[in-house]
Amino acid sequence: MRPQYGIGFDFGTTNSSIAIAESGGTRLASFPFAGALTESFRSVLYLEQLKESGRTTLKSWTGPEAIEHYLAADTKGRLVQSLKSFLSSRNLTATEVFGRRVVLEELISVMLRDIRNAAEGQFGVPVRHAVVGRPVRFVGAATDADSDYAISRLTVALQKAGFEEVTFELEPAGAAFFYESSLDHDELILIGDFGGGTSDFSVLRVGPGMRDRKGTVLSNDGVGLAGDAFDARLIRNVVSPVLGAGTMMRSGMDKILPVPNWVYLKLERWHHLSFLKSKETLDMLETVKRQAFEPGGIEGLLHLVRSDLGYGLHQSVQRAKNDLSRHEMTILSYSDGLVEIHEPVRRDDFERWIAPELGEIELAVDRALTSAGVDRLDIERVFLTGGTSFVPAVRRIFESRFGAERLRAGNEFTSVARGLALSSLALLAQSPETT
Question: What angle (nearest 5°) sits at the alpha carbon of residue 82, between those of residues 81 and 84?
């Protein structure tokens, strides 16, 4: 007999959450961090090579615990962020961790297992079946086949983590189920779900009259960019120039050349940053530093990569981005004793830098409406979820199309998990094994 509860799992690029739905409502698992509790499990993995009893072992921590161990370590191990962003890539199937080849699915499964175990302990029930969220289009996925490949890899990781039965549901649909739970009437809505790596949109009919859900999802669309892409623009325009981007060097052939740009492109993506810490890249940067006309910036870049300081830089960039949602100007500040960055950033400059990404989001919203066969005036409510929904330029996309009075938000970081849990409970109720 199937359980009489539903589990919803939102495995995110930046943050993850897991919820249970029962007849009395939904509740989320929480995780200790910095002396308090958080319902958002940071999607990070930290690895250290330890010597115990004369043997070398590989130790791992995930989520908030990973961050605490990383910050406390004098000699940094390996902190890996945004692993979800690699799922659609056929070029990255494994990586070397302290000389050991580890497949991506194994790394992801470590995080998923820790989340599942924590949820079992708090919910007091087995967590083996779940409705798991997925984006409309994965980061880096150019085709549906790429997204299918990402799903197959995520399925393997979930199985390795102890999940026995998984149903995938689009993340914006999960947010819609959560929003629907508060309605006493039917509505035609647009859901905008903004994660760290993807922006997804669904047009749905929701409400008490849509019990069987058949035909309620009218369209889906999305793009493989969101908060991380906005961070990348801040790095390109503010951080990378301090670290030597755009400066010149004298090659071994006595030619004047720009310093290699590809390493700065990697710096812009959190999920690539930890993979710069290889002997080949570090040797290349040492050579560039010796040949650079302005070696100080290259030395700073080397220091960040060699010491695996991406997390602190990430936090500084995100703080600046968040400040720009509340203020017209902020200072992007990062300091670790060797690298000092204190650069002013204006909101209008930031919005100019992210204009291409905003344009892609606008096109995805318009495609979702066209595919659904509805006019923007037909949409009764717009429910926005995810941290990037706070960015003023993003909100203006929806205010200009639908009017501020139709916009709704709430539980921006956990509504998807709650909605997926409600979806899981509904699916179980429809199963003949539960009757």
Answer: 140
Say what the alpha-carbon torsion angle 32, 35, 40, 41 is, to the nearest 10 degrees.
-50
Nearest to 235 by CA among 174, 321, 162: 321
Q: Where are the alpha helices (DSSP H) in 124-222?
A: 144-160, 171-180
Q: How many whole angstroms separate alpha carbon 322 and alpha carbon 364?
A: 24
Residue 338 phi, psi dihedral angles, 5° rounding? -110, -45
Residues linked to residue 292 through DSSP beta bridges, in sequence order: 249
Least Cα distance to 361 among 217, 220, 198 occurs for 198
Compute how many other C-beta atoms are within 10 angstroms of the C-beta atom of residue 411: 17
- Stated pTM of the model: 0.85
Asked whether 84 and 13 are in contact (CB, 8 A), the reply is yes
The answer to whether the CB of 365 falls within 8 A of the CB of 201 is: yes
Does residue 285 sit in helix, strand or coil? Answer: helix
Helix (H) or strand (E) holding 72: helix 63-72
Alpha-carbon distance of 47 to 61, in angstroms, equals: 7
Residue tagged 């370590």 (tokens): 73
Structure confidence by residue, pLDDT tens digits, 63-107: 999 999 998 888 888 888 888 999 999 988 887 778 788 899 999
Give residue-wise pLDDT tens across range 351-405.
Answer: 999 999 999 999 999 999 999 999 999 999 999 988 888 899 999 999 999 999 9
pLDDT in tens, 114-147: 999 999 999 999 999 999 999 998 988 989 999 9
